[in-house]
Amino acid sequence: MNKYLKQLIDISKIDKEIDSFEIRIAEAKADINRILKKKESLQNEISNFQDEVKEVSLKLGKNDAHLAELNKKLEDIAKKWKMVKTEKENKALSLEDEITKEQVTFANEEIERLGKNKAAKEEEISKLENQIQQLNAEEQKLEQAVKEKLDSIHQQRDEVFQEKHKLVADMDQKIISFYEKIRKWAKNTSVVPIYKQACGGCFIRLNDKIFADVIKSENIITCPHCGRIIYFKPELSSPEPAEDKTSKVRTKKAKVVEDAENLSLEEAE
Ligand SMILES: [Zn+2]
User: Of 49-53, 57-61, 83-87, 99-103, where does mean pLDDT reach its minimum?
Assistant: First the structure.
């Protein structure tokens, strides 16, 4: 095989491996991230409840002040009784007294209602805080395991980086920049083996001339359809791919007919 082609296959495998480390790192962190996200959403719920508690407390304060005013008013009414002289004044003062007492009852009820409301919200907050504490404990337990996993991944990644560094130092710079240009869009499918007689990147069939050239492996060859670098891997290519394909389709069709027959038999039973 052409030496440069061999290098390209090797470096594409290394780049693929390097990319896979990102996925492995993300996977290792997934459980911790799930916990962090859950904690964040609980924290948001808590601060919503805290805002509501603040609002209820304000209302409670207003009602307390109102109740104090009403009590003061009742005291004044009690003093006025001594000064009542006529029946009309008596009636008016009685009415005022009655209305004020009703208002006191209402204010007390309101204070009780708000107090219960506030307590319920505070209980929700403490439940949520408990949940956060549980998550904190879970997080702590996980942390060491994740750290060990990440350390091992980082170490393996460093080794692969070194491998790449060595290989790149050996390679022709023109070939590297040619490869990097393809990699910009084709990512990890920049250098692909052919399957049957098709490009392993775009899966479009190659003509016989290019197929023969790829098998020879004397030059770096790109797919005429997509531009990826293609190479020959004997176990992936059979000499007559087209025929193979139709026979597969035929088998599939036969299978469908067979299934249909089985089905109708089952139904008949
Ligand atoms: Zn292609």
Answer: 83-87
Q: What is the CA(230)–ligand 1 centre distance, in A?
A: 8
Q: Is the pTM of this model over 0.90?
A: no
Q: How far is the CA of 100 from the centre of ligand 1 (A)?
A: 89
Question: Residues with beta carbon < 5 A to ion ligand 1?
Answer: 199, 201-202, 223, 225-226
Please tell me the distance between residue 250's alpha carbon and the centre of ligand 1 in angstroms.
Answer: 27
**236 C-alpha vs ligand 1 centroid, how far in Å?**
16
pLDDT of residue 237: 75
- 212-235 burial by CB neighbour count: b if 16+ within 10 A, else e? ebbeeeeebbbbeebbbbbbbeee
Domains of the chain, with CATH numbers? 3-170 (1.10.287.1490), 174-237 (no CATH)
Mean pLDDT of the chain: 89
